[in-house]
Protein backbone atom coordinates (compact mmCIF):
# COMPACT_ATOMS: atom_id res chain seq x y z
CA UNK A 1 0.00 0.00 0.00
CA UNK A 2 1.38 3.38 -1.00
CA UNK A 3 1.74 6.07 1.62
CA UNK A 4 0.89 9.60 0.56
CA UNK A 5 3.92 11.88 0.37
CA UNK A 6 3.83 14.52 3.07
CA UNK A 7 4.32 18.21 2.39
CA UNK A 8 7.58 18.10 4.34
CA UNK A 9 8.88 15.21 2.22
CA UNK A 10 7.96 17.03 -0.99
CA UNK A 11 9.70 20.16 0.24
CA UNK A 12 12.82 18.16 1.08
CA UNK A 13 12.89 16.55 -2.38
CA UNK A 14 12.42 19.96 -4.03
CA UNK A 15 15.20 21.55 -1.95
CA UNK A 16 17.57 18.64 -2.66
CA UNK A 17 16.90 19.03 -6.39
CA UNK A 18 17.52 22.79 -6.15
CA UNK A 19 20.85 22.14 -4.45
CA UNK A 20 21.97 19.96 -7.36
CA UNK A 21 20.70 22.51 -9.90
CA UNK A 22 22.55 25.31 -8.11
CA UNK A 23 25.72 23.22 -7.92
CA UNK A 24 25.53 22.60 -11.65
CA UNK A 25 25.10 26.29 -12.41
CA UNK A 26 28.12 27.14 -10.25
CA UNK A 27 30.10 24.44 -12.06
CA UNK A 28 29.26 25.98 -15.44
CA UNK A 29 29.96 29.55 -14.32
CA UNK A 30 33.00 29.08 -12.07
CA UNK A 31 34.38 25.60 -12.65
CA UNK A 32 34.62 22.81 -10.11
CA UNK A 33 36.46 25.08 -7.65
CA UNK A 34 33.34 27.24 -7.43
CA UNK A 35 31.12 24.38 -6.31
CA UNK A 36 31.27 24.81 -2.55
CA UNK A 37 28.73 24.40 0.20
CA UNK A 38 29.17 28.01 1.20
CA UNK A 39 28.51 29.25 -2.35
CA UNK A 40 25.41 27.09 -2.67
CA UNK A 41 24.04 28.27 0.66
CA UNK A 42 24.61 31.88 -0.41
CA UNK A 43 22.95 31.37 -3.81
CA UNK A 44 19.93 29.68 -2.23
CA UNK A 45 19.58 32.15 0.61
CA UNK A 46 20.21 29.47 3.21
CA UNK A 47 22.47 29.32 6.23
CA UNK A 48 25.28 26.77 6.28
CA UNK A 49 23.63 24.80 9.12
CA UNK A 50 20.40 24.79 7.10
CA UNK A 51 22.19 23.37 4.07
CA UNK A 52 23.76 20.63 6.17
CA UNK A 53 20.29 19.26 6.81
CA UNK A 54 20.32 18.19 3.15
CA UNK A 55 24.00 17.63 2.34
CA UNK A 56 26.39 16.04 4.82
CA UNK A 57 29.65 17.19 3.23
CA UNK A 58 31.30 18.52 0.08
CA UNK A 59 31.92 14.91 -0.94
CA UNK A 60 28.22 14.19 -0.53
CA UNK A 61 27.43 17.23 -2.68
CA UNK A 62 29.78 16.18 -5.50
CA UNK A 63 28.50 12.63 -5.36
CA UNK A 64 24.95 13.85 -5.85
CA UNK A 65 25.94 16.20 -8.68
CA UNK A 66 27.97 13.62 -10.61
CA UNK A 67 25.28 11.00 -10.13
CA UNK A 68 22.62 13.35 -11.48
CA UNK A 69 24.79 14.14 -14.53
CA UNK A 70 25.35 10.46 -15.22
CA UNK A 71 21.59 9.92 -14.97
CA UNK A 72 20.90 12.77 -17.39
CA UNK A 73 23.41 11.48 -19.93
CA UNK A 74 22.02 7.96 -19.56
CA UNK A 75 18.55 9.32 -20.25
CA UNK A 76 19.81 10.88 -23.48
CA UNK A 77 21.34 7.59 -24.59
CA UNK A 78 18.19 5.66 -23.72
CA UNK A 79 16.01 8.16 -25.57
CA UNK A 80 18.17 7.78 -28.71
CA UNK A 81 18.02 4.00 -28.41
CA UNK A 82 14.27 3.93 -27.91
CA UNK A 83 13.61 6.37 -30.73
CA UNK A 84 15.19 3.79 -33.06
CA UNK A 85 13.55 0.79 -31.38
CA UNK A 86 12.16 -0.53 -34.66
CA UNK A 87 15.57 -0.40 -36.33
CA UNK A 88 18.37 -2.98 -36.50
CA UNK A 89 20.33 -3.25 -33.25
CA UNK A 90 23.37 -1.84 -35.04
CA UNK A 91 21.45 1.30 -35.98
CA UNK A 92 20.36 1.71 -32.36
CA UNK A 93 23.94 1.32 -31.17
CA UNK A 94 25.21 3.98 -33.55
CA UNK A 95 22.44 6.37 -32.51
CA UNK A 96 23.46 5.86 -28.89
CA UNK A 97 27.05 6.77 -29.81
CA UNK A 98 25.87 9.95 -31.50
CA UNK A 99 23.71 10.82 -28.49
CA UNK A 100 26.77 10.53 -26.23
CA UNK A 101 28.64 12.98 -28.45
CA UNK A 102 25.71 15.43 -28.55
CA UNK A 103 25.39 15.43 -24.77
CA UNK A 104 29.14 15.90 -24.35
CA UNK A 105 29.37 18.85 -26.72
CA UNK A 106 26.29 20.51 -25.26
CA UNK A 107 27.65 20.17 -21.70
CA UNK A 108 31.42 20.77 -21.68
CA UNK A 109 31.70 21.68 -17.99
CA UNK A 110 29.65 18.65 -17.00
CA UNK A 111 31.68 16.42 -19.31
CA UNK A 112 34.89 17.58 -17.66
CA UNK A 113 33.51 16.89 -14.19
CA UNK A 114 32.21 13.40 -14.96
CA UNK A 115 34.80 12.16 -17.44
CA UNK A 116 37.79 14.44 -16.91
CA UNK A 117 40.55 14.74 -14.35
CA UNK A 118 39.92 13.56 -10.77
CA UNK A 119 38.80 16.23 -8.32
CA UNK A 120 41.48 16.93 -5.68
CA UNK A 121 40.38 15.56 -2.34
CA UNK A 122 37.40 13.69 -3.77
CA UNK A 123 37.08 10.02 -4.64
CA UNK A 124 33.98 8.25 -5.83
CA UNK A 125 32.63 6.06 -3.01
CA UNK A 126 32.96 2.39 -3.91
CA UNK A 127 29.63 0.74 -4.70
CA UNK A 128 27.93 4.07 -4.09
CA UNK A 129 25.29 5.84 -6.19
CA UNK A 130 27.86 7.35 -8.56
CA UNK A 131 29.40 3.98 -9.43
CA UNK A 132 25.94 2.55 -9.97
CA UNK A 133 24.98 5.49 -12.19
CA UNK A 134 28.19 4.99 -14.20
CA UNK A 135 27.33 1.34 -14.73
CA UNK A 136 23.85 2.29 -15.95
CA UNK A 137 25.40 4.75 -18.39
CA UNK A 138 27.89 2.27 -19.81
CA UNK A 139 25.21 -0.43 -19.66
CA UNK A 140 23.19 1.20 -22.44
CA UNK A 141 26.02 0.58 -24.90
CA UNK A 142 26.90 -2.80 -23.35
CA UNK A 143 23.32 -4.02 -23.62
CA UNK A 144 23.19 -3.27 -27.34
CA UNK A 145 26.65 -4.77 -27.85
CA UNK A 146 25.52 -8.03 -26.25
CA UNK A 147 22.27 -8.04 -28.23
CA UNK A 148 24.25 -7.67 -31.44
CA UNK A 149 26.58 -10.51 -30.44
CA UNK A 150 23.63 -12.79 -29.68
CA UNK A 151 21.86 -12.00 -32.95
CA UNK A 152 24.84 -12.03 -35.31
CA UNK A 153 28.12 -13.02 -33.64
CA UNK A 154 31.11 -11.01 -34.86
CA UNK A 155 34.74 -12.17 -34.98
CA UNK A 156 36.54 -12.08 -31.62
CA UNK A 157 39.85 -13.47 -30.40
CA UNK A 158 40.04 -16.93 -28.90
CA UNK A 159 40.69 -17.10 -25.16
CA UNK A 160 44.19 -18.54 -25.63
CA UNK A 161 45.16 -15.61 -27.86
CA UNK A 162 44.40 -13.02 -25.18
CA UNK A 163 47.18 -11.82 -22.86
CA UNK A 164 46.92 -13.86 -19.62
CA UNK A 165 46.85 -10.76 -17.41
CA UNK A 166 44.12 -9.19 -19.51
CA UNK A 167 42.22 -12.47 -19.57
CA UNK A 168 42.29 -12.64 -15.75
CA UNK A 169 40.94 -9.10 -15.54
CA UNK A 170 38.17 -9.85 -18.03
CA UNK A 171 37.20 -13.01 -16.16
CA UNK A 172 37.02 -11.08 -12.89
CA UNK A 173 34.91 -8.30 -14.44
CA UNK A 174 32.57 -10.48 -16.52
CA UNK A 175 28.99 -10.53 -15.20
CA UNK A 176 28.40 -14.20 -14.32
CA UNK A 177 24.85 -14.22 -15.64
CA UNK A 178 25.98 -13.20 -19.15
CA UNK A 179 28.46 -16.07 -19.63
CA UNK A 180 30.26 -14.21 -22.43
CA UNK A 181 33.54 -15.34 -24.00
CA UNK A 182 36.54 -13.30 -22.94
CA UNK A 183 37.03 -12.22 -26.55
CA UNK A 184 33.61 -10.54 -26.59
CA UNK A 185 34.39 -8.60 -23.43
CA UNK A 186 37.79 -7.62 -24.78
CA UNK A 187 36.26 -6.27 -27.99
CA UNK A 188 33.58 -4.43 -26.03
CA UNK A 189 36.25 -2.61 -24.02
CA UNK A 190 38.20 -1.77 -27.16
CA UNK A 191 35.08 -0.33 -28.78
CA UNK A 192 34.19 1.56 -25.60
CA UNK A 193 37.70 3.02 -25.41
CA UNK A 194 37.41 4.11 -29.01
CA UNK A 195 34.04 5.79 -28.46
CA UNK A 196 35.08 7.39 -25.16
CA UNK A 197 38.31 8.66 -26.67
CA UNK A 198 36.63 10.15 -29.74
CA UNK A 199 33.97 11.93 -27.68
CA UNK A 200 36.20 13.26 -24.92
CA UNK A 201 39.03 14.40 -27.21
CA UNK A 202 36.55 16.55 -29.10
CA UNK A 203 34.68 17.58 -25.97
CA UNK A 204 37.87 18.70 -24.22
CA UNK A 205 38.97 20.68 -27.28
CA UNK A 206 41.89 18.39 -28.07
CA UNK A 207 41.08 18.36 -31.79
CA UNK A 208 40.54 22.11 -32.24
CA UNK A 209 44.15 22.62 -33.31
CA UNK A 210 43.49 20.46 -36.38
CA UNK A 211 39.83 20.74 -37.36
CA UNK A 212 37.01 23.14 -36.58
CA UNK A 213 34.28 20.55 -37.11
CA UNK A 214 35.20 17.07 -35.88
CA UNK A 215 31.87 15.43 -36.78
CA UNK A 216 33.22 13.86 -40.01
CA UNK A 217 36.07 12.32 -38.00
CA UNK A 218 33.61 11.01 -35.44
CA UNK A 219 31.50 9.49 -38.20
CA UNK A 220 34.58 7.78 -39.60
CA UNK A 221 35.11 6.22 -36.18
CA UNK A 222 31.51 5.01 -36.17
CA UNK A 223 31.90 3.55 -39.65
CA UNK A 224 35.04 1.72 -38.48
CA UNK A 225 33.20 0.50 -35.38
CA UNK A 226 30.37 -0.83 -37.56
CA UNK A 227 32.88 -2.64 -39.76
CA UNK A 228 34.68 -4.22 -36.78
CA UNK A 229 31.35 -5.50 -35.44
CA UNK A 230 30.24 -6.89 -38.78
CA UNK A 231 27.35 -4.47 -39.18
CA UNK A 232 28.59 -2.17 -41.94
CA UNK A 233 25.13 -2.25 -43.50
CA UNK A 234 23.75 -0.57 -40.36
CA UNK A 235 25.93 2.51 -40.81
CA UNK A 236 24.61 5.50 -42.68
CA UNK A 237 26.22 8.92 -42.38
CA UNK A 238 23.86 11.69 -41.22
CA UNK A 239 23.19 14.46 -43.79
CA UNK A 240 25.60 16.85 -42.06
CA UNK A 241 28.49 14.42 -42.59
CA UNK A 242 27.50 12.91 -45.91
CA UNK A 243 29.67 15.36 -47.83
From TrEMBL:
Q: What range(s) does the HTH tetR-type domain occupy? A: 13-73
Presence of the UniProt keyword Transcription regulation in the record: yes
Give one GO term, molecular function aspect. Answer: DNA-binding transcription factor activity
Matches recorded under SUPFAM superfamilies: Homeodomain-like, Tetracyclin repressor-like, C-terminal domain
* Keywords in alphabetical order: DNA-binding, Transcription, Transcription regulation
DNA-binding feature ranges: 36-55
Which Pfam families would you find in this protein's record?
TetR_C_33, TetR_N
Specify the domain of life of the species encoding this protein: Bacteria
Q: What is this protein called?
A: Transcriptional regulator, AcrR family
Amino acid sequence: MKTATTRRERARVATSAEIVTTARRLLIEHGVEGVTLRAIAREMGMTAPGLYRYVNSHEDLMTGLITSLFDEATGCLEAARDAARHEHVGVRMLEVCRAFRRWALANPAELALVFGSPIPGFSVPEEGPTEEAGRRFCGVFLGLFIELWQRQPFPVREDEDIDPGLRAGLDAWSPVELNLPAGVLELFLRCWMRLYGAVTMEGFGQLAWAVEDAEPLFELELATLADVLGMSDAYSAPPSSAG
